[in-house]
Amino acid sequence: MSDLMIETPAAARKSLLTRMAAFIAVTSVVWGGYYWWRPPAPMLGLHHVEHLPPSTKEVCMTFDDAPHPLTTPLLLAALKGSHIHGSFMCVGNNLMLYPELARRMVEDGHHLADHSQYHHNLTTVTPAEYDHEVETCFKVISADHGQPTSLFRPPGGGLNRSEMQYLYDHHVTLAWWSSDVGDYAIPDAWAIASGVIATLRPGDILLLHDELASTPKAVPLIAKEAFKRGYTFVPMPESAPLR
Q1: 240 — phi, psi (to 5°)?
Q2: Nearest to 181 by CA among 156, 208, 211, 217
Q3: Please, which residues have CB within 8 angstroms of residue 189's CB and are 6 or more apart in sequence?
Q4: Using one digit for the tens of pLDDT, what is the confidence trace for 202-238?
Q5: Among residues 112, 176, 101, which one has the least CA distance to residue 149?
Q6: Are 59 and 205 in contact (CB under 8 A)?
């Protein structure tokens, strides 16, 4: 039988310090690499809106992937019936295919914002394609629908350093959100509404989607409970208001 090796307190401390140093070094490299690739927006000075002032009870409903020929009319009817003005994050190609729906959005008092030209995740395209993906949609919204905007929401929330630098250089405002209940997973309307209401806070920007049949059904449910709690709904501002 071999003798048991008993580690002395000094050796134990040295071993612990070595492991801690290795952990800190690895963690620093990983996070350093991540922040180089996708730094927080404030590090690049990128204008961004992700929340309204919590001092008011205003909230925003935003809808990605608009317009859609089947669900946008349902969504517009639900918003009108609920007396809500929201913001539609539009795909430029869809605006060109369904201009009458975009006109109805504007006529109903909603705001249009840029969600790229073809809904490509910009982390999967080359920087040379950013101009077409971002600027073309801005031009369609401004020229064809009379709503100049600087708000851009990247498809899938995809961001990397080069894309953020592009947005910064072109004075684009990143249209973020503070509440995402995952309606893209197509839950029932009551589940969407319950998820929103359970976490609703003053100043929230709600991320919802246009092309889903359950979301228009959830809008009146959300509105009824939110109004009961004293909330009002406003379109997404073009810049972050002062807190």
Answers
A1: -70, 120
A2: 208
A3: 214, 215, 217, 218, 221
A4: 999 999 999 999 999 999 999 999 999 999 999 999 9
A5: 112
A6: yes
